[in-house]
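Hey, I was hoping to borrow your eyes for a little while. I've been puzzling over a protein and I'd love to understand its fold better. The fold is given in discrete form, as structure tokens running alongside the sequence. I'd be grateful if you could look everything over and explain what you see. No rush at all, and the record is pasted right below.
>
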Amino acid sequence: MYEKTYPSKRFNLTLAFLKKHIHTTETILDLGVPNPFSKIMEENGYTVINTKGEDLDNDQTNLQQENYSVVTAFEIFEHLLNPYTVLQNIKADKILISIPLRLWFSAAYRSKTDMWDRHYHEFEDWQLDWLLEKTGWKIIDRQQFTHPVKKIGLRPLLRSFTPRYYIVYAEKVK
């Protein structure tokens, strides 16, 4: 599928998880600006609306729109200082979230050149589960997967069997 230009394992697993839970007739609000994966969703028949790059910690106006039935947040929540209020303000009844998991052998990611490309949160799976529960979501399905890198060393070896990503499908509790 997406072998050469994209992180193929992550994108293929994410797409399979999306297809398992979300029908192409549903409209998706994808948190974040248009990106390679939002384009992949569109190529697979999904109608995708992206947020405009606003700081979701401070501006949640796009979440108040009623013209979407699903929210996706693929590697977004780790960048937010306050994902709690974002989850509270989502109007859809379905959400798919993927996050990088906290790795005990590696510090949280922090770009030295881009002030937005930093991880404020690197969750453990139970922390995202608890956050979803506290904001009124019930987890229906979840999956973890590794992200091996093609390098030699202790960290690359650990990455070959330590889950790096966690993806969750949840529905709003009524």
Q: What stands out?
A: The chain has a mean pLDDT of 83.
